User: Fold this.
Amino acid sequence: MEKETKYLNPYLAGFFLGLLLIATIFITSGGLGASGAFKSVVVYAVDKVTPQHAENTAFYKSYNAEHNNAPLKNWLVFEIIGVIIGAFISGLISKRLTFEVEHSPKIKSGTRLIFALLGGALFGLGAQFGRGCTSGAALTGMGVLSAGGFITMFAIFGSAYLLAYFFRKLWI
Amino acid sequence: MGPLTPEIFNTEINYIIAIIIGFFFGFILEAAGFSSSRKLAGLFYGYDFVVLRVFFTAGVTAMIGVALLGYTGLLDLDLIYVNPTFLWSAIVGGLIMGGGFIMGGYCPGTAVAGAAIGKIDGFVFMIGIMLGIFTFTEGYPAFEGLYNGFAWGDVRINELLHMSQGKFIFIMIGIAIIAFIVTTKVETKVVRKNNPEFRNTTFNKKVITAGFVYAAIGILMFFTPSRKDSLYEKINDNEFTASLNTPAITAEELAFRLIDRDNKIMVVDVRSKDDYSKFSLPGAANIPFDELTGKASNDIIKKSYKKLVFCDYDGTNSIKAAALANIMGNTNTLVLKGGIDEFMKTFSNVTKPDSAKMTFSDRQNYLFKTTALQKLDELSKSLVKVQTQTAVKKNKGGC
Assistant:
């Protein structure tokens, strides 16, 4: 039995999110994002753990060059720090803080975690090609009317719908 | 006028702004229920359309807001980051992400929100993201072709569909409203299979009212031309521009004043960047004709205390440019009669007057004309060229 919890009216939430996106674009000229922050962390990790490899591989080299050899000093990294705090506070207020593996009662939590890892990996990989994820490419793309953003958005949701039947056991 | 960075804020404040924006982002995501993978997945099985409602509303709201800010001149749409389109990379990326979504039940932003409230699966998803990225960075040489191919630049979706911004937004609002109504019905049906007592409460009075407001805005947008279009339409109206009677200056007088280092005038060259770099007058700023409504142009036209002398190829566009300046509130302008074409003709191949009939002023005139171009060239080299395009930093952004 799931405990009752109150969520914000989705249309209102969407409205606020839209306003936030407008403000972000107005203030910074860029939109919201998420996957980019993860990319920064990956590059940073590679720099620290295998610096020679980073030096010798074109991708890390050019990334570091573009970011003044400080991959973590990135607007998105700071934004994500804010996301963590904001989400935590919201969870705190709504009493939704809990350590758990959320999963359908029809599968084991271990199964859920395996697919979470796989799903994350696919998302991370896909976000590189898409030059952003649902926040950066799809949502922000919609706001600025980017063709690429819309195309990626349709591909994300289209592909998920097509695959939904095959993974239904995970959810329903 | 927006966008505000990088001009107004230095980097450190930028990062603080990032945290604040992120805070609200995370708060809204969690408050809407996006911290729960089961709620997110509901979109694909019909039992919870929260993703559609939040996402579509946010997207449409932002679209309207950005367009309105652009139309009123409060935001320079040429300077904001528009995700560039790399066709197949965008498609393939989206297809892969879709797979990630249905398997993992999260996306990067929501996974962070989930992890922040304790969802271990959210945290594991985040680890997964990094592994996925690592696969990409390590395998980059193999992916590069697809990644950089079919580069269409920062095309806008309405341009791709050959329709105006306003019309596209109108259609989007329409689709959104229909989608919300249909999916609410579907959701109610699906949930009632297991829970016959379920009542869908998302459509309250305020939401329905808001729906009508958006519909009205949509209709308005349909009939609104972009600010840029309406301005250019006005200055292309020859009757209007002629009625302004912008005074003209001849090539000789301009050359004389420039050589004389008259610092009360500034030339604004509205020819293309290429032609400007091949030849330009000393101290001239270059604002290509199509960019006259941009930020750099705004700065010059609205803030310059000098008399602006517009010049173009043959004089027609400079009159229009002066008209635009007039609309913006600056009437301290001149246009170069005959443009650069006439200017070059005046100072090249100067016919030497007949020495028998030559008067003193004829000779002075001749000497002036034959040496003008050279003197102007020397002056040009010694002055800093004001290239407006490089002076304004454009956001390179992106994820």
Observations:
- DSSP finds 19 helices and eight strands in chain B.
